[in-house]
């Protein structure tokens, strides 16, 4: 028996459309029920819109542009001041921890020439280590077990510091006329290789290599007229969170014009 067609349309709608319509009606009812049960916090909504306006740069019509600019500048300066104070405090705490270790090492030093000194500066501090503690004269290998122990103690203190510092290892030599056909060829090589050796030892003690830096000055940054004072390795701890903006300064290439 042939199926009868609907008299109103040439072709009936697909059967799944009815179920789809029922599903959409149920979902609409569900979301209406959720909305009726929700509690809208007017204060939080207003705070959210205020934050979004500030983030997107909208200007409050009730306040002039200059006032809002001054307010924004004040907030930024206060934030920078807080960051500077926290950085200075962190530097001070780190310097105190290292100072305690230095005092212990100096107590066991046999000679005054083997005394480690610590110098504190703005947003940094530096350990001045006589090279005799770490290296034999003319050598650049860390062969002394006591030197390796000292570096491991320094590394242990670094790992316990509350924030990550950049560490610059600086090699110095006396003004000797050292020359050789093989490496190290001169004082530049000796100072650089000693810095690299200390850096490698720090890496062995789980210090992040990305925070380490090698510098070498040979005999051109003397500390005093004594040759023994000038033969040294410096460990400079510094943070780059409080660096001055150099973009506003006159460029070197501008001065060439």
Largest sheet: 5 strands, mixed
Order of helices and strands: HHHEEHHEHEHEH
Our estimate of the beta-strand percent is 5-15%
Number of helices: 8
How many beta-strand elements?
Answer: 5
Low-confidence stretches: 243-249
State mean pLDDT (0 to 100 scale): 76
* Multimeric status of the protein: single chain
Taken from the alpha-carbon principal axes, the silhouette is elongated
Distance between the termini: 100 Å
Helical/strand content category:
alpha+beta
Radius of gyration: 34 Å
Order of strands in the sheet with the most strands?
A: 1-2-5-3-4
Q: Portion of residues in helices? A: 40-55%
What does this structure look like?
The chain is α+β, with helices and mostly antiparallel strands and 257 residues long. The chain has eight helices and five strands. A five-stranded mixed beta sheet has the order 1-2-5-3-4. α6 links the parallel β3 and β4. α3 runs antiparallel to α5. The longest helix is centred in the middle third of the chain and has 43 residues.
Can you give me a brief rundown of this structure?
Helix content is 49%, strand content 13%.
Features:
257 residues; 5-stranded mixed sheet; 8 helices; 13% strand
Layout: helices, strands, pairs:
Elements: H1 16-37, H2 42-55, H3 65-107, E1 117-121, E2 124-130, H4 131-134, H5 145-160, E3 166-172, H6 187-204, E4 212-218, H7 227-230, E5 232-238, H8 252-255
Parallel strand pairs: 3-4
Antiparallel strand pairs: 1-2, 2-5, 3-5
Helix pairs in contact: 3-5
